[in-house]
């Protein structure tokens, strides 16, 4: 009858039958011996195992029958319970309200457990009627646990075009007014791009830990596409959301123009990345504004802390002000380091001011205690009123960060794999005018965007900072109104943040919103520009890979293909 239905159709029609149950007093299952086609309340379904005549008894597959009738099948392993029916799977025996049933009431065919349809009807207080080889079993739906919450939702319609947004409205409730604390969806998508029939389910949990029965609705997708995955994302993707774009590497590049602007040096400490003893990691002197970036793991085998000490080199009092500070510590998850630091850095606005007498030292940064193997990433902008010496120290927890201790510590040798040094001009002021779209701007590839060069102040050797970690890219985009910009990772895992200024709006965007950006053809939405001029502050995230591309698209399409925009999303 319906043997040709595939797995998707089976799930969907089964879901449609289930969705009808909360609105009906009875569930009616109509089936025919040896046929997989059946009906639930008039809706066609496909059974995985057909009803059979076994030992002169009409038998139904127990699990499928319970599922279709909306009855909970409890237990696992060797004992199952369905209403008044108890089944011993190992013995193929059954009892009804404690009374043993005749042999043959339960049977196994392969891995499928069958039960007599008449026994099933008795267990459910159901009505069984027959017509030749066709049977109809009518059972009152299960009442469920009266204390359990109820899952409910609706969609704005039941038939959608491929790529059309589905608007879901939730309205679950709890019988006693307890809070709904968790939701679990199955089959839910914001849009379906392939024609077919789909079932969406919702299960909710209340504050008492009780879970609802699944509630499902079925939707159909057909007709002329409203959007492709890309045009849909350009309409609806939220900042931090990834979306597919297989053509991204074919887009032409736009070359920003470098302009003059305020600048200052970067003091970078990442070698040795994993110090194994207390000591000085890096040291140099600065005057005025500077950015500090340190990235280290505790390899001492005991608790330790990272410090940045400032020592006044002037013969007068000097003030050291922390303008911005972002840190991640302690953590063992390398991918977290750069992103959390950047989020904190962009969120900070002014901090403490230290007044140092001539020759006096004080810590301008002190990490939390780092257990063995855990790490710290810190980025800090300082402004000094005179020349100060800045020293990056890793100290075991028992040592105080004093000038006397620092003078007795060894200078730790670079590890040969990572970089330390002082890099002048650590701000890149870039300007670009958008013309044809889509287009992309490449950052951190070492060619179009070269690495900055500096000096290791301890060895006096020239060093190159691949990836430009800690460099602030001040990007001004003109002609941005009506465009969308996304980040495309080109070097592997990327997890960071950017600060966007769009007219009066300033916002820090977490990229991606969850997990990691990994694939060039799965960019992450950054922003949809409203103003003609868009300013983006970008600092490459420690622990992530470069290069990246910033990809600019036309954000909104006109009426016609892809023109429908649904603004309501509760």
UniProtKB/TrEMBL annotation:
The cross-references to InterPro entries, in alphabetical order and at most eight, read: Cu_amine_oxidase-like_N, Ig-like_fold, Mao_N_sf, PKD_dom_sf
Q: What is this protein called?
A: Copper amine oxidase-like N-terminal domain-containing protein
Q: Which Pfam families match?
A: Cu_amine_oxidN1
Species name:
Deinococcus knuensis
Q: Which residues form the Copper amine oxidase-like N-terminal domain?
A: 10-70
